[in-house]
Amino acid sequence: MSYTPEELNRIAIAGRISSVLSILGSFTIIGAFALSRHFRSPIHRIIFFNAFYNLFDSVATMISTSGPTAGDTSSLCQFQGFALQMFPVADVLWTFAMALDTYLVVFYHFDTLSLRKLEVKYISVITALSFIPAFVFLFIRGHEKGPIYGDETIWCSVARSWMILRIIFYYAPVWLIIVIVLILYSLIGIEITRVRDEFKLSEDDHIALTSNNSASSITTSADANSRRKTGLTPESTITSDITEQNTFQRPPPSRNASTTYQTPKQRRVSLRQYVIMPSLFFLAMLTTWIAPTINRIAEFAHHEHGSYSLLLSVSTLGSLRGFWNGVIFITIGMKGWKRRASERRMALRQNRNLRG
């Protein structure tokens, strides 16, 4: 199917506008993470890492039709094809990492430190899985098929003559990961519903999660009475994105200790940051893959490119990954920041009233 120069120009303009928005979204994420400690939860950190991958993706989509115009064997076309093979796949893998973090928090009670220990593994695995196929494709040439990366009308990517590789190393793994992420979020939702007596959503947007393990503490009757005069409790709660009620530190009990009790370990998990925000990222990511997948199915079935309107949708939606990530990151993050600021102001007012 041939397209007029005007149609190709409109496709290029739409794709480049979307790419600019995505670049701004990625820089917004990076800037907010660097300047504010509020955006430092494990989920925020994953989004921050992914922002750098989104930047390269946006640069590739910004090239747009200039890649095919330069020719299949040009460095510009080959770079664009490499980037559009690697970084969209990495974006899906980072979305899986967010879902996995949420799953580990809900089912295995991972805390912030435990989740951060996984970040190096995430970076290594995601980079390797997305980089290796994209890099190898740069060096494969066919006498009749030509290079793997070639003219695909709106940009350079895996050419139609190599369509089977595009399916095996791009669409198949991407949709497999999407299905896995969907299953994880379904399990998370079912678990939260099933143990609704254990998960209690508080007014400050947190779920109080009691673990199956208990932290033991032994006190004397005198020690307990002393705390009731002083207002101290056996547990002290640390406010954070994932917080635990830790056992109050006491001196060793005397030999005449008569009271023994156990206090359950609890975690207060932010519903916005660990459930809502990752779910929205997943939905945003899903919208960017529908049009390209429909286009590839039509191309595979009819051996020709899709309609002009479909290609326009692919160019526009496929270039918005960084933009949607930035919007969700800031919108959800700012709501949490405003809530915390309001809580701090209320606490200060209460302290002043108590002192007065």
UniProtKB/TrEMBL annotation:
InterPro entries the record matches: GPCR_2-like_7TM, GPCR_Rhodpsn, GPCR_Rhodpsn_7TM
Native organism taxonomy: Eukaryota, Fungi, Dikarya, Ascomycota, Pezizomycotina
TM helices/strands, residue ranges: 12-35, 47-66, 92-110, 122-140, 168-190, 274-291, 311-334
Localization annotation: Membrane
Membrane association type: Multi-pass membrane protein
SUPFAM superfamilies assigned to the protein according to its UniProt record, in alphabetical order: Family A G protein-coupled receptor-like
Main location: membrane
Source organism: Penicillium roqueforti (strain FM164)
A GO cellular component annotation in the UniProt record: plasma membrane
Domain G-protein coupled receptors family 2 profile: 8-333
Protein name listed in UniProt: GPCR, rhodopsin-like superfamily
Polar residues bias locations: 233-264
Superkingdom, natural source: Eukaryota
Record GO terms (molecular function): G protein-coupled receptor activity
Keyword NAD: no
Disordered, as annotated region: 217-264
Keyword terms: Membrane, Transmembrane, Transmembrane helix
Record-annotated G-protein coupled receptors family 1 profile domain positions: 25-329
GO term, biological process aspect, one: cell surface receptor signaling pathway
PROSITE patterns documented for this protein: G_PROTEIN_RECEP_F1_2, G_PROTEIN_RECEP_F2_4
Keyword Transmembrane helix: yes
